[in-house]
Write a structure and sequence with these properties.
Blueprint (H helix, E strand, L loop, with lengths): L10 H4 L9 H13 L6 H6 L12 H11 L9 H10 L5 H19 L2 H4 L4 H12 L1
Keywords: ATP-binding, Nucleotide-binding
Protein name: ATPase AAA-type core domain-containing protein
Family: Belongs to the AAA ATPase family.
Length: about 140
């Protein structure tokens, strides 16, 4: 079996402290999770168990700038370093996935601006049929 990494955000909501007031399904989820994670009595203790959990902190400005550089390395022309620095400072709280999404949205905006005819109107069924007919001939 290969190792896996699973990210839990707000694990307290998934597995709070066990009590007699929980319904059967919730108790089952909590019990299974605790059993699989070295049989701790409380989910709160699991979070503090060093061997089980690694903490990934929110990125700082330099890390965000590096992520922007990675996500825009294939762009032509390349964004100026000063611009990426400014973006990194403005995107406080963004993680790698958020920055990647922001870069993808920026690329789509540029595409729409350069090729507006693509987005003006949807093709009719007749246009689609004629297009496929041309491709097949």
């Amino acid at each position: 079996m290969r190792p896996s990494i699973i990210f839990f955000d707000e694990i307290d909501g998934l597995a709070p402290v066990r009590s007699s007031k929980q319904d059967q399904t919730h108790s089952s989820i909590v019990s299974t999770l605790l059993t699989l994670m070295e049989r701790r009595d409380c989910a709160c203790q699991i979070k503090r168990h060093v061997r089980t959990f690694d903490i990934f902190w929110i990125t700082d400005s330099n890390a965000r700038k590096e992520i922007f550089q990675i996500d825009t390395r294939d762009w032509t022309p390349k964004p100026l370093d000063a611009f990426l620095e400014e973006l990194a400072k403005k995107c406080v709280g963004y993680c790698g996935a958020g920055i990647k999404s922001l870069c993808a949205e920026a690329a789509l905006c540029a595409l729409r601006r350069c090729y507006p005819q693509i987005y003006k109107k949807r093709p009719t069924a007749r246009q689609v049929k004629s297009y496929f007919k041309k491709l097949c001939d």
